[in-house]
Amino acid sequence: MSKPFHFKQFSIEQDKCAMKVGTDGVLLGCFVDDKLRVGKVLDIGTGTGLLSFMMAQKFPEAIIEAVEVDSDAANQAADNFARSLWHKRLSSVCQSFQEFHSLSLNNYRLIVCNPPFYKSANKTKGNNRQHPTEQRAQARFADFLPLDELVKGVQQLLSKDGKFYVVLPVIEAQELMELCEQAGLHLHEIMEVTGREGAPPNRLLMCWAKQVQPLVRKCLLMYNSDTTPTEEYIDFTREFYLWKKYDNRGHLKNIITPHVKDIL
Questions:
Q1: Whole-number Cα distances in Å, 121 to 25, 62, 140, 145
Q2: What is the pTM of this model?
Q3: Across the 264 residues of the chain, what is the mean pLDDT of every consecutive 10-residue run?
Q4: C or N: which end of the chain has fewer Cβ atoms within 10 Å?
Q5: CATH of 5-248, one of 3.40.50.150, 2.30.30.30, 3.90.226.10, 2.60.120.10
Q6: Domain spans of the chain?
């Protein structure tokens, strides 16, 4: 049974979700500009509700709608929302994004998505074994939400002055860039994320919009060569993570809370 994941202002139960709280989602939530003026927020493929919680914390007046195709995950997100301080501003919708955007008449000033990206639900990364559960496959594989369907829906639902934030591995991000440009979306900001010192970037955090403005490029290094978290990573996630304390040799000095889960 999976343990709850505790953040500074909220906790997430994840025992009924195929995909647990992960670094990609946390990075994306931290990347969203907290100076935006948002009203309605859409979280596509919410899973546990992580990004919805992060948006509720960042934007105290926002109304957040979380769409999730898997019924167990949608119900768990709804339960997590109901227990939170922001329960009146959070709602979970059990529906595929394809169906949701085909029926919705709303526009959103902020859309966030940590999409599935593996190309086939018949294989796991690096081998030919069958994926253990259909639930986990839905959460991980792009068959269930192809990038072209994602971009089509975002283009329809995003307000003319809205922002679309998304995270993807570098290769998949190139495909998304082509699709967004074809749909008339413009890249406003991009952050290259490198897992460990000396390695190439492995994730891209992106902000897209319908309006044109100069592109802002950023980089984030998460871990030093000795596997200790960098100061920039700690600072980037400080508003959410309950960090353990390290001494100057990278050894744990103390724990801020007994419930914290370190992200190493």
A1: 21, 35, 8, 12
A2: 0.86
A3: 86 89 96 96 97 98 97 96 97 96 94 80 42 48 79 97 98 97 98 96 98 97 93 95 67 39 36
A4: N
A5: 3.40.50.150
A6: 5-248
